[in-house]
């Protein structure tokens, strides 16, 4: 029987959860055993409840005398203002048990339902907040996990970038970009950077361990350039020469008019990746100066630079 259920027994309202009987003008308190017995009689209202049932229900088969049961019944009768000789609530059946003779009805506990609904709503809100916190924490952790950590690289070779453009007419730009990255990385004192004359001979496909053994470097940096209409996409990656494992990769997109700024962005990203605590002032100054360069002039510069380098290398 639910202890949050209320009952109306004559003028008395029974509150099992607080072991209390209330009328319009009075309040009576019962002990726990007395309330349990009253609830049992209410549950079996109109039917005889044997002493054996009562002993089993209240005392779980423990050895209890009839006197204790009689005292418990007396407490209930006293609280109800009942008389054993002329009972209006509980009638004694000699050698059998007891019977509740008064009418009883369940009372809808609207307050209890309201409290239950409020508790349920509170639980749902708390669960939603916890779910939001967990999801937020998960994605925050995922973002932190996906942030590229600083690479422990002591030496690197920059390979010529591939031209993936449809017309295959931007190799000068790809080579110029590789050459510019070599120049930028050479500014890091703690990093050994292989010159283009040694690294560019590996334009054909070789395995990372093979190139690493030949050039004695920890990692390789390569990538690709793809121009489509007015857009340029440059993909850069760093690979370990020990086992060919991809250590880092990223894609950079730009308008063709801002390719020189795109080069600065790529150099900045690689700088930060290899040596995150490096002073960025010189790089920022270079980026600001490059904003004044005409885009077409920059293309001509790269083309002329590669032609000049190739000519020197040929002779």
From TrEMBL:
Residues 4-102 bind DNA. SMART domains: Trans_reg_C (SM00862). Keywords: DNA-binding, Membrane, Transmembrane, Transmembrane helix. One of its GO terms (biological process) is phosphorelay signal transduction system. GO terms for molecular function: DNA binding. It comes from Pseudoalteromonas citrea. It comes from the Bacteria. InterPro entries: OmpR/PhoB-type_DNA-bd, Sig_transdc_resp-reg_C-effctor, WH-like_DNA-bd_sf. This is OmpR/PhoB-type domain-containing protein.
